[in-house]
């Protein structure tokens, strides 16, 4: 049975929840073992990369809930997202070490997690939760063992990193993909978590100056991902020079198109775009119009 538990630790949440239990009674009993629920990666509506896991094919969270409701003949009108999340998280019996919450996660669930998942090492928090006025960032101080944190928004980043600096002494990885990184956020990272080794800024809006601030201040960086960013040029000599000693530096697809340079400085650009979801490719049609 120990071998089966080890195998199921590597299987996705949907399979352990809705497939494996119906193979036979002995397999069902194994799925009740908390060891099968130490890594809780909830599916989402879009594929994102959160270190140290990479979701290559990310199913829809609502589909998972609908299938669960159907399989166990639950009244869907009386079964909420919060109820479902709590049910799954409780399977870990306080042993969870990795948790990626879906973007529909409620504030109530976040409070619940802070109380029942004390040993988290890796935590992923979605944008909607972080930008809710009802979310209490102080709860992050409860996770003393955190090593990697993924934030879906840079809102209140200074407050969150200050808490991490004080309470999470083992932090080495920070994921801020698809967020807004201004000089304020860059300085917060440098001052509060200068010793991080892994930094994911894939798809962010970030100025060249802010990126240089990070490169100068975070001297222990081993891996930096700035692919598909808006506001920096992937071939900028100064950036390439600073990053030359990294074990892994990814910058492909990062652009600061000429037509945007004529309209804004980089700092103006990040202020005007804000945290609106975007895709690098969305600018291509404007570039074509300029030609």
From TrEMBL:
> Any coiled-coil ranges, and where?
none
Q: Which domain of life is it from?
A: Eukaryota
The GO terms this record gives for MF are: SCF ubiquitin ligase complex binding
Extent of the signal sequence: none
Which InterPro entries does this chain map to?
LRR_dom_sf
Classification via SUPFAM superfamilies: RNI-like (SSF52047)
Q: Which organism is it from?
A: Prunus persica
Question: What is the protein's given name?
Answer: F-box domain-containing protein
């Amino acid at each position: 049975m120990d071998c089966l538990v080890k195998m199921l630790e590597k299987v996705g949440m949907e399979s352990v929840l809705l497939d494996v239990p119906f193979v036979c009674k002995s397999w069902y009993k194994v799925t009740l073992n908390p060891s099968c629920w130490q890594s809780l990666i909830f599916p989402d509506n879009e594929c994102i990369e959160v270190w140290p896991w990479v979701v290559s094919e990310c199913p829809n969270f609502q589909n998972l809930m609908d299938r669960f409701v159907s399989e166990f003949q639950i009244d869907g009108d009386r079964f909420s997202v919060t109820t479902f999340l709590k049910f799954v998280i409780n399977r870990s019996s306080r042993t969870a070490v990795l948790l990626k919450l879906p973007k529909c996660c409620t504030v109530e669930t976040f409070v619940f997690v802070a109380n029942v998942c004390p040993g988290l090492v890796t935590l992923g928090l979605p944008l909607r939760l972080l930008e809710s006025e009802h979310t209490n960032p102080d709860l992050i101080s409860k996770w003393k063992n955190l090593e990697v944190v993924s934030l879906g928004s840079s809102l209140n980043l200074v407050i969150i990193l200050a808490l991490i600096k004080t309470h999470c002494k083992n932090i080495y990885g920070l994921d801020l993909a698809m967020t807004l990184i201004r000089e304020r956020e860059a300085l917060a990272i440098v001052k509060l978590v200068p010793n991080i080794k892994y930094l994911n800024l894939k798809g962010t809006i970030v100025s060249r100056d802010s990126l240089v601030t990070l490169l100068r201040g975070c001297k222990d960086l081993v891996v930096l991902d700035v692919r598909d960013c808006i506001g920096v040029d992937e071939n900028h000599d100064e950036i390439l020079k600073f990053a030359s000693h990294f074990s892994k530096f990814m910058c492909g697809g990062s652009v600061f198109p000429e037509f945007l340079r004529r309209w804004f400085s980089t700092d103006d650009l990040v202020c005007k775009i804000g945290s609106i979801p975007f895709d690098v490719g969305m600018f291509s049609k404007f570039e074509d119009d300029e030609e």
